[in-house]
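To whoever is on call:

I kicked off a structure prediction for a single chain this morning and the downstream step that reads the tokens threw a length-mismatch warning. I double-checked the sequence; it's 128 residues and nothing unusual in it as far as I can see. Pasting both halves so you can look.
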Amino acid sequence: MSGFSINITNPIPLVLLIPKISTKKGITNKEYPTVDEALAEKDKNGNSINLFFGSFKTYGGTEKTVNGVYSIEDTANIETMYRSDITGVCRIARAEDKAVFDIINEPEDINQRHQFLKFKVKRLKGGA
């Protein structure tokens, strides 16, 4: 059996936004840090623990028709080295422009070998 190999060309810096989850009166609330707050968390060597690198491929987004209105969602596929703290409740931000993306589904651990992760994200932004 040949092993899966990932091809991360031109990796970009990404920031992991891990929520603080609290429950009040039976309602679960997720509070996400800002990109700057996440980057401020350092390890003992002074490196940001939430910064990682990966490929970020948009392929032009995802086409959608809702109530007869055609739109394009800003989606992307991310491939990166395995990190156990990247889960479906986290958000990902591009370090360059601080654009925040929500992970659509649980990240896929390729071949369950804890080497590579692949997942899809959707951009979060305001507007009507």
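Update from on-call: the warning came from a stale cache, not from the record. Cleared it. Sanity check on the structure: The domain at 12-123 is CATH 2.40.10.270 (Thrombin, subunit H).
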